[in-house]
Amino acid sequence: MPHPYGIHATARIRAAHNGRTTTVPLLHHDGPFHLRRLRARGERARVRVLGAMSAPLGGDRLALDITAGTGAQLEVTTAAATIALRGSTTDPATYHVRIGVGEHASLQWLPEPLISTRGSTLHQTFDVDLAATSHLLMREEQLLGRSGEPPGHLTTRLTVRRDGRALLDQHTAYGDPAPAWDGPAVLGSHRATGQLLLVDPGLESHQEPRVIGDDPAEGQAVLTPLADAPALAVTAVAPTPALLRHLLDTALAYVHETPVRKGARAHEIRE
Predict the structure, then answer these.
(1) pTM over 0.85
(2) 226 in a domain, yes or no?
(3) CA–CA gap between residue 17 and residue 104 (Å, rounded)
(4) Cβ 89 vs Cβ 125: under 8 Å
(5) Whole domain around residue 48: which residue ranges?
(6) What keywords tag this UniProt record (predicted)?
(7) Whose CA is closest to 226, among 266, 196, 269, 265?
(8) How far apart are CA 131 and CA 124, in angstroms?
(9) Domain count, the chain
């Protein structure tokens, strides 16, 4: 709904399994979010999020609720990059993504990059609840500034719970006034960064961390198993969005091509 200091909007996606295939009984559009059903891929339903206006701007309060019910298979993508812009107010914008995945359900969250532009302030949060038998593939990419432009201030918080227990709680902050975000211990000269999270009960435990990328100037990624969970996290930095996507895709391909899984269910997590 309209708000004098920005847009307040919540869009909702709900997928369910009807005993034969996955359906999407709820697509609730709101504010800048327009949701479109895509052609299914096998039993996997697919939804694309379209931006109906420029957002998020300063002062906006945006939320996206995504639920994959028991046995459902759902993929959610975006049509274009999300661009955080300075608005008519100095208030920060917020973008909250809530994800719930039920028993024996699978969800893939594969948006295009988020671009933090000069003068913008965006606080993005992800709140993910998984059942013990859920499958999840999340990919997030951030581009700090457009070509030749310094970024705004961007914070992200990812909280994941599996079967009611904390699996991952990660916080990042980029752009002034975040300290040392462009120092050698964080991004250095790189301006594209991204994360990939794979949770799959079929993953083998006791995997070793792996560095992906031979030339630090071209970007590198680190694939790390999470403690006491069938999950892998990938963190990557690169000079360009294309090189960043290549690193994340290479990390996911490594998981598919090596014996890190119990059984043969790789089709459930492929893009």
Answers:
(1) yes
(2) no
(3) 11
(4) no
(5) 8-186
(6) Chaperone, Cytoplasm, Nickel insertion
(7) 196
(8) 23
(9) 1
